Structure formats: structure tokens, C-alpha cells
Amino acid sequence: MSALTLAAVHTKYSLLETARVPIAVIGSLAFPSLAFCLFVLPQRMVVDNPEFATAAVASMVVFAFMSASLFSIGIDLAEQRAKPWAPYLRTLPGAPSARIAGLMASTLIVAAAAMVPLLVIGALFTAAAPQPADLLAAIGLVIVTAVPSALIGVIIGTTCGPKAAIAVTQVAMFVLAFGGGLFLPPVMFPDWLDVVSKLLPVRQAREIVVGAALGTGAPLWALLGILVWTVVLGVLAVWLYRRDEGRRYR
């Protein structure tokens, strides 16, 4: 069985496992829209301006993928490692990258579903009006740029126990969301925070997605940054997964 086929199998069964807990699915679908209603809709100066509203909706879509990646992967993976099924699963043949890819793919699928009600709310209650081509480009790019967040979730789930993973994930989400300019526009940052923010993968993802949604294009520093983060976090995630496998299951 090829690595791609094996990853597809892991994706399928990860989705089935998630579907068996309806409240988890409902929470994943509703959380980004709820955050949008609480943090963005009350800001009339934002929702009544087409450019600001489009940027705000795009930022919250990035938040939807980031939060799903951190919580669904980080906490779920930590819980899976504590269950008896995990040692048996790791005795089966197959590269660890296939298991990681399957878990990431299933999470991104759920996040894509959570994006739909968010876009509907943005269309109905804000002045956001991206061009159809720009909207499609932004949707495609938000999936691609969510990979670093998903890899951070893998790293958390591989290195933390179930209880520790909850705390670490919450801190990571807070730092990445606010530092990445998802709740507060980066134009409102002081200079030092803006410089630090540009080093975060979530800020880079935001700039790419917002640039696509507005049709202005993405800055080069964001494109290069997201590429570097993807490679570095990918290598680190696979190495930590293999190290954990060697320590616990051999």
C-alpha cells in the first residue's frame, strides 16, 4: 500500500471517529462563527467597510483553520497516545508521515466545513464583497497555509500528555491568534509587535489569505515565511513522532 493510499485510509477513519461524537463536530463547526459574531460583528466601522469587512472575514477563516488544527490534532493526538489502541497501531507497517498526513487531512476537512457558515454570516451581515476569483483563491490558500498550524498541533500532541496538551494548546492558540493579527488588525500594532508578529506562521497565513481575498496579492516575506515554517515544522513533527515511537512502543 502506497503512502498516499495509507494516508487516505487514516483520513477516512479519523473522520469516522470524529463523527461518532456529534458535539465535537457541532463545536468545531460553530466555534469560528461564534468568535466572528462576538469579536467582529459589533465593530460597525469594520463590517460597514467592504475592504475592512473582507479582511476581517478572511482573518476569521484563518482562525477557523488554526483553532481546528491546534485543538483537533494537538489534544486528540495526545489522548490517542494514552489509549491502548495506539501501541498496536504503531506496530503496523507504514511511515509515520502517512499517519500524520491522515490526521492533518481529516482536520482540514472539518475546518473547511466550519468555513461555510462563517462565509454565509460574512455575506449576510457585513459589507464584504470579494470577487469570485479572489474568493476561490483565498479558500485554496487558507487550506495550504493552515499546514504549519496543523504541524504545531502534531508537535503538541506528540510531546504532551492529555492534560498538558489542553493547557499548551490554549496558550498556543491565544499567542498565535492575537500575535497573528486575527482579532486585532496588525495596523493597530506598535512597531515592535508588528515586527515580531511577522515572524509567526499565522500572521504570514493571514497576510496571504487577506491579500488573495482583496486581490492585492501576498507580500514576499509572508510567502517565504510560510514555506520555511512548513518545512521546519514538518521535519520536526516527523522526528518527534519517530522519537516518541522509539521510546514508548519498542
TrEMBL record:
> Does the keyword section mention Transmembrane helix?
yes
- Keywords assigned: Membrane, Transmembrane, Transmembrane helix
Q: Where are the transmembrane segments?
A: 21-41, 53-79, 100-129, 135-157, 164-184, 220-241
Q: Which GO terms describe its cellular component?
A: ATP-binding cassette (ABC) transporter complex
- Cite the GO molecular-function annotations of the record: ABC-type transporter activity
Q: What is this protein called?
A: ABC-2 type transport system permease protein
Q: What organism, scientifically named, is this protein from?
A: Microbacterium kyungheense
